[in-house]
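Lecture 7, part 2: worked example. A protein chain together with magnesium ion.
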Amino acid sequence: MRDEARAEACRTPAHVAIIMDGNGRWAARRGLPRLNGHKAGADAVRAVVESCPDLGIRYLTLFAFSTENWRRPREEVSGLMTLFRRYLRKESAELVAKGVRVRFIGERSRLGTGLVEMMEALERRSAANDRLFLNIAINYGGRDEMTRAARKLAQAVAEGRLEPEAVTEEHFAGFLDTGGLPDPDLVIRTSGETRISNFLLWQCAYAEYAFVEECWPDFTPDRLAEILSVFSGRERRFGAVSV
Ligand code: IPE
Ligand code: IPE
Ligand code: MG
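Predicted complex, written out as C-alpha cells:
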C-alpha cells in the first residue's frame, strides 16, 4: 500500500464492522427476559445504520447471529429467527428507499425458507443502491466461511478451472461471502467482551479494534462518532514503518 493510501486509511474508516453483543445482559439488568434485550437490540440498529452516510462510512457489517449461537436454548434461537423476520418485514422498504444496498453473509441452508426468501428479496430489491453497503451476518462464522471457500476452491481445481500454483490471496478472498467488499478498517464490539468470537477472521487481518463497555441496545450514533474520532488518531502501519 502506498504511503498516502495508508495515511488516508487512518482518517476515514470506509468499512466498520460491529459485533452487537450484550443484549442478554441489557435485559437481565432490567429484570427482563433475554428476548426483550434482542428486541431492544434490533431497535438500536436503525439509528446506527442511518447515521453511517453522514459519518463517512460506506460499508457497515453487523454480526447478528453466529454459527455457534445455535447452542443457545431452543426458545431463544426461535425468538431470534422471528425477530430477524420481523426486522426485515418492518425495515426492508425503508432501507431500499434510503439507498442502502443490503447483502447477507453466512451459511443459509440452516435458516428457515421464509427468512431466506425475505433475505434474497431484499438483496434483489436493493441491488442497484450504493449510498451505504450494509452486510448482515446471519449464521456466520469465520471458520465456516473459510471452509466453504476452500471447498469451492478445491472444486475449481478438481474441475481444471484453476491451477493450484495459480491460487492467490485475492482468489481465496473472492470465494468468501465478502468477495468484492473491502476489508473492515475498524471492528467495534459492545458489552465489554474483548474477543472476536469467530467474526471475519480472514478479513480483519489488519483491522483496528474498539472494545466498548455499553451493551448493544444502548449503543448510539453519537457513540459511534466518538469511536471514529479515536480511530482517526491511530496510525495504521500495515507492517511497514511510520509514514
Ligand atoms: C448479542 O447479545 C446477540 C446475539 C449473540 C444473537 P447476547 O445475546 O450475546 O447478549 P449477552 O452477551 O448474553 O449479554
Ligand atoms: C457474538 O456474540 C455473536 C454475535 C454478536 C451475533 P456471542 O455473545 O455469541 O459471543 P460469545 O459467546 O460471548 O463469544
Ligand atoms: Mg453475548
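The CA atoms of residues 41 and 241 lie 40 Å apart. The radius of gyration is 18 Å. Keep this in mind for problem set question 3.
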